[in-house]
Amino acid sequence: MKRAILTLAAILAGTMLFAQPSGGVKGTVVNRNGKQPVENARLVLMQGAAEVATVTSGADGTFYIPGLENGMYTLVIDAPEFLQTQVQVTVNDGYVKNMFNLSLTGMQRVAEIDDDSFAQFDMDDSGYNDNPTILFGSNDVFNNIAGYNFSAVRFRARGYASESQDVYLAGVKMNDAITGYSPFSLWSGLNEAMRSKETTNGTEVSDYAFGGYNGVTNIFGNATNVRKGIRGSVLTNSTLYRLRLMGSYATGLMDNGWALAFNVSARLGGNDWIDGVYYRSFAYYAAADKVFNDTHKLGFVFFATPGQRGAQNASTQEVYDLMGDNMYNSNWGYQNGKVRNARVRKTNEPIAILKYDYTPSDRFNASATVLYRFGKNGYTALDWYDAQDPRPDYYRNLPSYFYDENSDLNRNNQTKAFWAEEVWSHSGNYPTITHINWDRFYYVNRIQTDEDGLNRSKYIQEERHVDQNDLNFAASFKYRPLESITVTGGANARINRTEYYKQVADLLGGDYFVDIDNFAERDFAATPYKVQNDLDYYLVNGSARTLKVGDKYGYDYLAQVRNFGAWVNGKFTFGNFSSNLGARIGYESFWREGLVRKGLFPGTPEDDSMAAAWTAAGIAATDQTSYGKSDVSSFLTYAAKLGLNYVIGGAQRVYANVSYFNDAPRFSQAFLSPRTRNTLMDNLTTVKTFSSDINWQYSGNGINVRATAYYTTIKDQSKVMSAYDDLQNAFSNFAINGIDQRNMGVELGFKVPTYIVPNLSVQGVVAAGRYEYTSNPTLTQTVDNSAEIVMLDVPVQYWKATELMDGTVTQRHYVPSTPQLAGSLGLAYNRNYWFIDADVEYFGESYLDMNPLYRTASAVAGPDNVTTDNEIEYMTTQEKFNPAILLNLSIGKSWYIQYKYQLGFSFNLKNMLNNRSVKTGGYEQTRLVDNTVSRTQYYRFDSKYFYMAGTNYMLNIYFRF
Amino acid sequence: MKRYFYILLAALMLSPFAWRADAAKHRSYVIGFYNLENLFDTYHDEGKNDYQYLPDGQNQWTEAKYAKKLHNMASVIRAMKEDNKCWHAVLGVSEVENRHVLEDLVSQPEIEEANYQIVHYDGPDRRGVDVALLYKPEVLKVLASESIPYTFTPSRIDWSAWTKEEMDNFRTRDVLMVRGTIDGEMFAFFVAHLPSRLGGKGADLRPRGAEIIYMRAMELQKEFPGIKIVVMGDMNDNPTDASMTEFLRGKEKIADVTDEDFFDPFLSMIKAGYSSLYYQGAGNIFDIIMVNNAVANAPKGTFQIQPIVQKKYYGRVFSKPFMTNQSGQYKGTPFRTFSGGAFVGGYSDHYPTYIVIKK
Amino acid sequence: MKKYLYSIVALFALVSCQSLIEEWQPVFTFGDNEPAAMKIYAEDDLYEYDFGGTFTDIQDLKAQYDKKTTAEKSSTSGHVITENIWIKGQVVSDDRTGNLYREIYLQDETAGIDLKLGKSSLYSDFKLGQWVYVKCEDLCIGSYKGMPQLGLEPDNTSLNEYETSYIDSQVLIDTHVFRGEYDTPLSPRMLTAGDISAAIAEGSSAWNPASLWGTYVEVKDLTYGNQIFALVYPHGLIPHKKDNPYNRVFLSDKGTWGINTWAMSKSKYVEYINAGNFDAAEVGSGATRYGAITTKPRDYAEKMGESVINMFGADADITFKEMMVKYATANYVSHYFKVGGTSTILQVRSSGYAKFSDKEIPASVRGGAAVTIKGILTFYDGDAQISLITSPDDPENPSVILQ
Questions:
Q1: How far does the CA of residue C265 sit from the closest CA of chain A (Å)?
Q2: Between the CA of residue A323 and those of A402, A427, A923, what are the distances in Å?
Q3: What is the pLDDT of residues A494-513, one digit of tens each?
Q4: Strand partners, A487
Q5: What is the pLDDT of residues A421-449, one digit of tens each?
Q6: Looking at CA atoms only, how far is residue C1 from chain A in angstroms?
Q7: Given CB atoms, is B137 within the 8 Å cutoff of chain A?
Q8: What was the ipTM of the complex prediction?
Q9: If you ran DSSP here, which 8-state letter would residue B247 be given?
Q10: What domains appear along chain C, each with residue ranges and CATH number?
């Protein structure tokens, strides 16, 4: 034990005695050119003027000077034929400073200064003329503010239809092949995965796509573009869903060249405003990118958003007033005490993407993408056979059906009106009348016992399917031969096979349903073959098919769409001026393929045995058929764009665009009655659009302003609709073509710092436009059950204006469902991660969607075929919504914890004035009242409206590490 | 009548013909600054917080990434040489870890022929980043250099909001001052990397940095009358901010510059919309280079700053498509080394800036 | 910084728990959550709706008709029942074929009554034989061409030709008409020619308590009477009132007008017109007669008067026949059958909307073969009629059977 202490003491003594400063410096002297060590270099360590030590470098060029106090030294290195080099060395905390390599420059390499030994800075071309690079692209101030503040009122930029906005994913156009609708619902809930995108405005050409006249959004969607790290968020939104949980993890580009990204989310529950509307949607996303080298990159993405969503229905003002609730939704009812929605969207449409990027140099890059979309898209609804209409707000259940002070309507039963009013104004006491009575469906279905003891359901829940198989190939390239010329272009091919059919979703307590056409049975009760939805099955089995849950019935046909296109765009810059010229050419064709032969339209027998069977069953051939391939409708499409852009300097630019488009009509607007027959609307033609705009933009030191004037005409649009026509007392198809419109107006967006209060800026947006119909289209009406032509190319005389007998125009008619005058003014404060925005918005000049039937001469004239001015005004005037003023507030704050973790929240409060009477849209019904006392005019059914929710909030708490 | 005469004279003076005649006799040099965005080596320097930039660190800073970073930095310096047809005579840099990374940079194949010499001091910055100066030995003869520490006194700024203790353990980069001669004319180069805007109470720190430089510069002007001073660095402030206009007295027009002021060529450029870096979509110029009166209104026959962009701007922000993001939400901004925490193999989040002096 | 964090979390918790209670009970989606059957009322469930405990015989209910107030007598209204009267009866009608529309017939031991519910496809809700309890207070009993009907008070409009109106209002149906338990459907009462002629003899005293009207009957030994009755309206838009003789065409008296189907759907009616079956028919009713349907309203301009011509509008210059085609609709037809070889007539009245409307009456029947017919016996302006509740050749339960 003693010995241990002694040795310890000795060690301690040792260090004490020879305690020397432990600091030092070491390194290797090398020749800058070629890195060979320099032997015998003389190294003098100076501190201020005093020499501290002198050493010479060893054979391997190394040197080591120990025993230095902390402090700053200068190491002077000299070697023959080398330039003297001085190295500042700091020794701290007693460490030996490792200087690694200290390179000496050979003397002969450094010539004395003389004129020609080094080139002059060439002054004669007076330097450069490069321009300020101003970020105009994605952060457009108008879109940023308008996009957020106007979303509640379904604002559509420049009055263009939402289908005109091109949305691309990984370079593939995702707008629906059949309807053109925007596809955001395909990846809703995957916000993190789809965050990185590039947008262009108006007719600007994107690097990835030629685009239309309403901007292009290209979402990258591949793994490398997903923000690295683990992220999660919890969100509740009082108008959408009670809870959204979202998580994402991305590796970013790892050293092994792989990048992986995952994103999952769930959106659950209802909301505070609209009963019956709920979400049970999930979403998953997985993506992997493999970067082989700077030139080749391959990416794979797979995602889907399976789930279901309860839908909302619009009602008439009478119902809203009686119930005192503009948010009444007639789609739901109680079943066993629980809320059940009849209209539920059930979708599971996965998308798989394979993308290859080829970037051989920084002057040229190209990519090719294969994208395949498949899966199921169902939308449930009630279907009933020979039974009372189950819809609670069916017009015959409303007080206005029993009593109306207009005596011409001959509705004078005040008792029934009183009781209907009593029910609707105390709906809480009569849930089975003011909401769907699910229990009654089960009751009715259970007592329809047939001779075999099975119950034939009268009420069922059907699921209308639109199952898409959408295969896309897209390639694009970007080539910059010169600094001033950039050429982009690409080609795409789309093969879309969409199956439309209905299937039985729920027999509601019954045992089976029968596959016959309910409407046809009323007209052709005597000829049973005409009532069949599946004639071939009927001929084989002698009766219609009995349906179980999951069986297809009603209609079953394929929409086949093919389109191929190629585009190119050249961008040329000369100093401050740049322009782009682009063109697109394409070929689109579509046809219908009936998979089931409908009794009403059997077509012609394909072979003798079928002909014999038909004659035996008394089936007459029809020229229009429901079965097999329809005529192929094909169109050559083309478009051209010219853009001029001049940077005035001082962070300003002026730019103008002019473009022309010749686009194919949509499949959904081409077939008279796709559910029953192959018949195409005749004289179907392409939609011709001319668009021009001129813009001024300022974006510099905190100030962002953009002003635009635009003028666009869209001609030869077509529309197909089906509705029950009271004049013919028959369900009819209406084909309307030759709809022209002109959208013109101005846009102004600005965000300017207040300078008085730091970090506080004023932001505002004004969008004022006139979106007018400029033509009276023609209308062709056919009876759905017989294809008999009732009206052929009849002009819709009052479509573009309410014009009295003597020609005076009392009202022009406008493109509906978007405010033509929208403004927002607010303050935005943001300082060290606090974000506070308060905005006041004004929306005006929005009109209701018009029903073409009410604007035909026959509907206006009334049964006596005599047209008077007040008949014109009554029937054709387009309803104008009241202007609305809203107040929004949003607050956000995020915290960085140890520079690695981020926690934050954002809280938005919308419509703080609780303005409950803001109509956001709606439509005129197609029914007409024709049995009147005076028989001099028809009366319109009440219109249906959607309203905006009152004060609502969204709270999002997110974290990242 | 007299007015017309002067205009005629000026036109003659400026006409290109006049320039060409005596181009041979004249000599011009490029002086620039470049924030290299975290140029770290892969070894741990004791006493420095460089843990993020180690192979097993958060950024997985491997040899391969270090080599790509060096190559990228060198290729930007070479690209500037291609444009200017001559190497930068003097290049101030910031965000470099130590002398070792500078030794590796100057010996990169792209720029080795420039024989850049290094002036670098190990600074006290917590993140271990320093400023340094690279110069061509055949142009600049270095006489002296110093590493000016960041102190709080003497100062005309009110520091009452700061406690003594806060001031003592506040760490940031030193200001490097190198004095030497070019063609016999005395020059002093200041290279700074003022405290960043992140963090709460930073508002006065940058003015203080500017004040430190200004006071030292005025001492040098007294000590060496007629000395030409160039102040450059990542100021973390725009030319329009108080630190630059009030504390360094950076003036927009040469005519307004006196011996107590500096000429800031980037003041008119920020107003014109030029940017050397972007933050939340807004353009800024933090990489500022100023010259004192001796360079702005240089006596006849001595080095004077020259307009080099559009015949009216005396500074240039250098950018080429290869160092700019070509796609995504950051399109048009500098293509940086790290984005959103992931290594994307770019260059720097700043563009280099430079001026030209001519004799 | 921490305190902000806590306040936000608290706000979120407050918001969520308040709505958690009322909302979180998840919205029902799918699966096997089938509800219990709808309520079947037993007698003691009715006390909740102040049922007095005793039911009134349907024949005594008819007696209420005589308690019309002076106001009701002066207007065209039936009698709104003010006493707490309850009736119960079994369902004997079925509107499956479409021959009956928006009404069901209830029958007890004493009589039958036509209950005008107003809803369509009532066979979905009321099964044959099912007991139904009706609280008659606030309902209105009236007569339509002598046939007793139970409904709601009529629309108070001058155009009205009806003493009662359809109930229609679901809340009134729910509080006055109660579904009882299912029972075996009543078999039809066997009637002889004598029973029918006696019933017809009661004539206007259809209110006679012992009458058979509104009950489910079966009549044997019926032979086709080779005569029909149908009333059609050439102009679809001029009101079909009695005092518009210019818009009425009677197909009656002279044989069957070529109509060999039980009734006329819209397409069958147009077929007959175009075949010229009705060319001999005359426009007009009661005292005012115009001319054959092949003439035009213009031909009677001065007889009709200016205002009536205006009513026809452009149609004044087309023949009534063309008008009948232009405004064609489905139409009722009554076929006369002689009862047991006697001169008593029983009319088989069928609706043009019935599924069997265009079915031909078998040639043998038209040839005079004896048949048995089952249906609801109704009284119409002095004639006995029968409404078939199943298709004449229905496989399970034909309503017209060759003997």
A1: 9
A2: 18, 7, 20
A3: 999 999 999 999 999 899 99
A4: A479, A570
A5: 999 999 889 999 999 999 899 989 998 98
A6: 9
A7: yes
A8: 0.78
A9: I
A10: 43-179 (2.40.50), 187-285+321-403 (no CATH)
